[in-house]
Amino acid sequence: METTINITQTLILVPIFGAILGLFFRKKPKALKGWFFAITSLILFAIFLNPESVAPTTKSLALLIALAAWLCILARYLESNTAFDLFEILILMGLGFGFLFSVKPLNHIFLASIFALLISMQWRIGGEASAPEKFWVIGLNGLAIILLGTASLFSAQNEAILLSLAYSMLLPLFPFHGAYAVFLKRFPGALPPFLSLFLPSLGLHGLLPQIQMLPPGIKHLLLVCAISGIIIGGLRSLVQIRVPDVLSQIALVFWSVLWWHFSRPEASTNTALLFLSAVALSLCGLFLMWHGLAARFGNLIINQFGGLSSAMPRFSVLFVLLCTAAMGLPLFGVFSGFIKMAFSSTSGFSWGLLFTLFAWVFASWRIPTLMQSLLFGKQNPQWIYDDLGLGETTAFSLLLAVLFILGVAPQTLMELQHFPELSAHLSATRMENNP
Amino acid sequence: MTTLENPPSKKKRHSDVSRMRLLGIVKLASEHIATTWPMHTFISRNPLRDLEHLDFHEALRRGKKQVGGEGYLSNTIYRQYFKTGRIRKTHLDAALKNQGATSEQKIILEGRELTQLEVLRAHFIEGFSAPPAEILKTAVKNRPDHAAIEKLADKLSTLVKPVDILAQIDSFAEDTHSSLGRSHTLSNWCDHTFDTNLTETLNQEMIKWCLPFLDEGQAPWPLPLRKKGLYAAWRILLIEESAFADIPQISKKIKQTPEHPADLLLNNLETLGIPKSAWESYLGRHLSDMPGWSSLIKWRAEHPEYPWQEACPIDLVQYLAIRLWYAVEWISMICREKMGIEGTFGTLSAYIAAHPAELFLRRESVAARLPTFYAEAVDRLSHRSVNNSVWQDLAERYAKDAAPKQNRLAALSGAWRLTMCSKTCGLDLEILQRNNGDDLKLLLGWIDAAPETEHGPVWLTAFEAGFQESLLKKLRPNVKPAASPPFTKDPILKMDAPLPQRALAQAVFCIDVRSESFRRHLEKIGRYETFGFAGFFIAFIRYLGFGSHHETDLFPAVAKSKNVIKEIPRPFDENKVPRYHAGATFMHAAHTLLHDLKENVITPYIMVESIGWFFGIPLVGKTLFPKAYQKWARRLKNRLAPPIATMLTLEKATQESVETIIASEQDLMIKKALQSEKILRKKTNSPAFAQTIKALRKMATEKGSANEVLNETEQKQIAQLFPDSEHLDAFVQKLRKEHFVTEAWGSARMERITRTGFTVNEQIFTVKTALKMMGLTKKFARLVLFCGHGSTSDNNPYEAALDCGACGGNPGNPNARVLAALANKPRIREHLKQEGIVIPEDTHFIAGQHDTTTDEVVFYDLQDLPSTHQKDLDVLAIDLKKAGTHNSIERCGRFPDVLHEPKAEDAVAEVIRRSATWSQTRPEWGLSANAAIIISSNRLIKNLDLDGRVFLHSYHEEEDPTGQFLEIILTGPEVVAQWISMEYYFSTTDNEIYGSGSKIYHNVAGRVGVMYGPTSDLRMGLPWQTVGNGTMPYHEAMRLFTIIEAPRERISQIIKQHTVLKAYFNNGWVHLLALDKGQFYRYLPGDQWQLET
Question: Containing domain of residue B118, as a range?
């Protein structure tokens, strides 16, 4: 146990100290990127090998976060200014590990720090966000901090409700998804891709123990919120004109599907983890792809792009594959996640199946048009096109490979041996529903 | 939401004068729209043909404005040509100097001298323009020298004229008002201002009607009522079926529309309130919104004799009437919803004048030029009914906020240009930063005076100069100096001398650029003499192939002809005809059955399981074993319908024989009628019965009663068949109405029969003109081959584009057969002898066809070949095969996917494979790379390798003292060459607009053209695979370079007489050089000639 604590403490401290040491290279973006790449590679390697005694879910989530950070750093398009977002990624990762590997109340302190850091980052970007967006970020994250601090004062069931509410800021649930959407839309550099995966992963980690404590009424409320999120996210994604706005709405749909899954008696940690990993990686990839475009051309509206298929062939091929994965087409993890959810019911017909298919359509129907708008049509002859570099190509190829592995080998890779709390709770719920 | 009620004026009928005036306006409005032939007779044409009365560059600007097509290659491509040496510095400098750039204007920056020419050259080669505003900041940020650029921008901020957004808003209202209805339709305006998708919606609605209406047999369920015309069909169908469009009470509204399309169009224009002075441009804009379908409709309307047009008439008035009807409805919907006003020109103009701030902000928002905050504010205000002052306040706030940012962008843009200039000219950036600003201003002035959007004309001139110089360099050694004696010992001039021995054979090929290399290889192999001649061999024929039911026009699209030539079986093979017909009928029936089964609503479900596997055979064969499958399929076809030896009907029937034919046909019809009416129960062939039939025919055709028309004997004979005169009259009426036994039918039939073949005079004229034009009037070889050309490819909608353009996009073998057969006639030869053309008795003409894909040559009508010439033919066949192989090797070198020069057998296999592979998007390059036409004697091109880029037309000025042959060449083949040249030119400069884009996305539409995906505008022009290789063009987009070996006065005289030639040569569409008295002279606009040094 002692060894475990030491390693986990190291995992918390390495990114934070790595970020601090990175200040030496703050004016040399290339060197900074290299340094951070080395740090994240080390962390990724360490998590992959250790610690064995940590719950498999926690290990998987930590691995996912480290992988996302590694990919974001590798695919970060180097502009001439300093890559300040990379510092924030490392610090967030350190604090995130703190939340994953520590226990109450320390884990809440780490999480509250993350919320506070996000608020401060929101302040830093300032003018980019509109007044309502600022309100969402400060209001929701502030509320989350208060909830984390006060939840323990209440009974176990109420504590679970309050904590679930706090975690719904991380794993977005309508109507508390606003802050998450603002982070994805407004934050600079590689932060949106990282946060698109990081926050839901923490949310899932925090939520799993609380689910069993939630009363049925609250679960029904979750179901309503999830369905609303799917419909609203799906519809709103249609009217968005900027890529991050579209992706943040698609993300809401995806995460609402996960919330819906939690409200079902058939809910399974394996399925949830598979779904979260695949979706989060797909979103991370799409946001990273967008980062590549935005860094080259600016935060333009979708219609201003066009003809990338011939101008940036490497980007186009990888983007098409990533869209295919994100849409939930076969051989990739999202497909497997959806299929597992759709067929999780033991009965032949289930409303869940229909609902999953419905949500699947909602989540994916904007992606093909997005792909078409960016890749086809006429190029702008005045633009300077610059296809993906080696780092970016490698990062996206690896990301696709991971998504592929999640798609074809989910059982062996994601099987969880230990998660007695949720399993027991799910069995009890099933019995209640089917006496 | 409801739409406007149709005003009563929609029923209004207009006078014929108004309608005629409208027709004229529509004609003018369609000037910038190309004419597109149906795909099966793909004719290369100039997409801007109707603008040829304008200067070339002006027409390109007009084309860009109207249809959005780029008339020049992109600067990136020209720069690539410069980097590879294809465009040389000397030519670029010369072109720049022509544009006014000089070395005299200069600035000196800390001792470094920069001339205007140097700066502009560098600007052309590197491109100093800053990226557009939307990505400028990001682009600067991504540069390693961004700090220096920003520093320079700080310096320039005082030099840059500050942006005044409020002034922009003021001018916006004026600009919008002046462009409304002229540069933009009201629907375009709505799209730009309210982010509606009205233009696209209109396009989709029109595609929905155009595609089924113009379909030529692809649709299993044809559009009903097509025979009534597009407008009538649309009107009736919408009255009966109102679910076609998203317009409330559509049936009621359609009922109120006038029956004449011109009336509806006039009503629509009046309802929209478009000023009459803007009608032409307004309708032109509507046509430009969907140029593909419009251009096909334009062609259909110009060809009333086209069978599909005869059956289903359509024209642009009908098209525009329908389009504008929808436009009226939808514009009124949008304007009411967004502004609460009627959607007319007048109300919109008033609204624009009263609400400039609102509309400016809306438009900026739609164009994504507003920052997020303002974009959201515009979005919020758009959904609320707010006072004009709220918009005004927002605009003022935006002006205040955005002006500094835009000023900064302008300064950054200037700094970018100067930075690029300094880097390219080897100038230290710090020198610019230290400068007081005046020089920077001057430098920027030079650069800005030549924006990159205007570089095209200069690049094109330089590009063309390089090619022309290299071609002339090749030709000069073959030029005979003036005043030289006809035969000297000069080795160059020896080429003009006749061959020392009689040629092994003479071969006449099409002028097509693909023939150039083939001719060259053939001449290298042996003592062959070749000629270039327009591939229709001056035989203007409508051809009806054996087994075909449709006549094909085998002459240039600019000409007309009525001479029908039929292919009929040779007498000795007539016994095979029934079997051939049985086989052909079987194959046709099988094909129809499969097609019907595939297209039916129900049958595909069963068909897939039951006989779906059958399709696996061609699928596997065509994919894995294309050559073997092609051979097998051909064998199977020959087994089912064995090929039959055929001949052509060259002779025109005499009046008497035609009358006999018609009479016998009508008699047969009367006999059948008697049998079907049960009047005649037994078959009889007695002379008396024949007289009865004749009498009935007389009655039916001469339109009189029995007493008036027939004599007594005839009346008696008829009385035996009919009990009374009433029965007789009824039968005769039936003969007229149902069996077409009328005088009119007889006349029509006679006209049709007499179109078949040529009169003797026509035959003599055809042969004489052809031989004289090509200069083949003496020294005939024993064999003379007239070689047309065709192509072979699979799964290629553009197949016709590879065939002979001079034959209307068809294979040219029938024309070659006609000329060869005529030239072999002793009677014709006798007449030619009197004209001074003595064809030796041992000279035999044969017809052939060069397959430009496989380089094989096949011969025709060898049954007529004298046995004495068999050996000559064998030798020729062997040498043609060798020439074909050499040509294949040469062509393989041009295919990008053939990486190494193949061996002979590999090259032959490769070209055959390309012709048989159904996934091959480039079976051959076609006429790609064509660049020039040389109209001259063989001497000028003797022994020259012209890279398959030059049309070659033989012409001997001494054979043409009056210039009549040259006139034919310039008004025929030259025009065809120019059309081809321009088709390739524009398909290369803007393949998306003037070309048809990538073949990968093509979808055959109604057998008339191709669309992108399931629904789109009809794609015109050539696909990228024909003109491009990867991202670079394969075809070099240049104007046609014409070289004519003839006296200048003769050429000038001909140009003066023909509007089309005046347009070509005076407006800069074609470059013209005359080779006169051993010197090249360049034609300059205004009938001037300049010695080409």
Answer: 75-165+397-464
Q: Are residues B59 and B147 located together in one domain of the fold?
A: no
Question: Interface pTM (ipTM) of the complex?
Answer: 0.71
- Which of B990, B988, B1012 lies closest to B1001, judged by CA? B1012
Q: Choose among B74, B129, B141: nearest Cβ to A79.
A: B141
Q: Do B627 and B690 fall within a single domain?
A: no
**Contact B139/A at CB under 8 A:** yes
Flag whether pLDDT at B41 surpasses 90. Answer: no
Domain contains B779: no
pLDDT tens-digit profile of B566-623? 998 898 888 888 889 899 999 988 888 888 887 777 787 777 777 778 788 888 998 8
Residue B1090 lies in a domain: yes
Which element (helix H / strand E) includes B93? helix B89-98
Assess if residue B445 is contained within a domain: yes
What pLDDT was estimated at residue B1065? 97
Which phi and psi angles does B445 have, rounded to 5°? -60, -45
The DSSP element (H or E) to which B507 belongs, if any, is strand B505-510
Residue B565 resides in a domain: no
B52 and B130 share one domain: no
Query: Which of the 8 DSSP states describes residue B810?
Result: B
User: For residue A324, how far is the Cα from the chain centroid?
Assistant: 18
* Contact check, Cβ <8 Å, B376/A130: yes
> Domains in chain B: how many in total?
5
Q: Concatenated DSSP letters for B377-417? A: HHHHHHTS---HHHHHHHHHHHHHHHHHHHHHHHHHHHHHH
Claim to verify: residue B205 and residue B254 sit in the same structural domain: yes
| Domain end position, chosen among B464, B485, B507 | B464
pLDDT at A366 > cutoff 50: yes
Spatial strand order in the sheet of B1079-1084? B950-954, B932-936, B1040-1044, B1070-1076, B1079-1084, B1088-1091
Give the DSSP H/E element, type plus range, for residue A141: helix A131-150
Query: What's the pLDDT at B499?
Result: 54
Q: Among candidates A142, A255, A162, A140, which has minimal Cα distance to A206?
A: A162
Long-range contacts of A351-360 (CB under 8 A, 24+ apart): A352/A264, A352/A266, A355/A227, A355/A260, A356/A257, A358/A230, A359/A230, A359/A253, A359/A256, A359/A257, A359/A260, A360/A257, A360/A328
Q: What is the pLDDT of residues B196-243, one digit of tens each?
A: 989 999 999 999 999 999 999 888 889 999 999 999 999 999 888 766
The predicted-structure confidence for A265-312, as pLDDT tens digits, reads as follows 777 888 889 999 999 999 999 999 999 998 888 888 888 888 888 889
One domain, residues B698 and B588:
no
Q: Which residues of B touch A304 (CB under 8 A)?
A: 134, 368
Q: Nearest by CB to A296, from B132, B142, B144: name it.
A: B142
Average pLDDT, chain A: 83
Please give the model's pTM, rounded to 2 decimal places. Answer: 0.83
Among A78, A82, A297, A316, the residue to mutate for chain B (most B Cβ within 10 A): A297
Does B44 share its domain with B101?
no
B620 in the same domain as B748: no
Task: Determine which of A186-200, B372-386, B984-998 has the lowest per-residue pLDDT on average.
Answer: B372-386
Whether B1093 and B946 map to the same domain: the answer is: yes
